Amino acid sequence: MELHIDDDFDLPKIADSGQCFRWTRTGEHAFRIPHGQNCLNITRIAEGRYQLDCTDEEFRTLWRPYFDLDENYSAIRRRIDAKTDPFLYRAAEAQKGIRILRQDPWEATVSFIISQNRNIPAIRRSVELLCRAAGDALADREGNMFHAFPEARRILDLPQSALDACALGYRGKYVRAAAKAFCDGDLDFRALSSATGEEAIKSLMGLYGVGVKVASCISLFGLHQIDAFPVDTWVRRILQNEYPNGYPFHLYSPYNGIYQQYMFAFYRSRESGGA
DNA sequence: AGGCAGGCTTTTA
DNA sequence: TAAAAGCCTGCC
Which residue is nearest to nucleotide B7 (CA to C1')? Predict the structure, then answer.
């Protein structure tokens, strides 16, 4: 099907934003995006025009929510005042097009447990290895194989040697503990999504190997708590360098998480991208 | 109780 | 070699 999108929507920026670790680039304006048991091939064919290899029905039920297309990101972005917060304004202009995906909460949980103390290429590699080790091998509409993100049960059933082969290091035991918590019903995303942001983070921190940073990422990217504000090594630097007198969270509620993404991606692209 | 130092696996630049 | 979308443990 073909699709028009007027709102902020930039596939390469989303792919590089550090919120998802399994997109693969298949062309200059094309990506392969696994989600649940499905895998979308999407190509930008012109400004604001996209070709998707899915039915209208699948788009409505699966991909429109996944891309959070019912939220108006340009309106949220325009709430930033260039005079009172020039840094955030610049970051948002530079990273315009990022959206907060509505990813599967279980996948987000495992992915961000794996993310701790590692850079993004290393995270991608481990997640992909885990999917190959324990995820179902499926085919997309074009007949290309991909691996679904593994259910908790499948991760629990992995022999230790197979889990070790995913290069998780000391995080392997955290992933196994999360899988056990999920299977035992101690990790209940339905309950978490009806909790307040603070409650959700506190509850997630009960998981072995999950501190405030990873819990915030799970809330933001897995539970779509868009006010959650993960503070990692990059954001810590931003707060120190750009906001020595404090960051005005109150001004930006309930969109703190979206603005965090603009700043995070902006800083990271400046330092590592060399621009 | 709450804060802090040290350790942890492996990859990346 | 240092740093990477950190957290746990032990010590004070």
Answer: A170
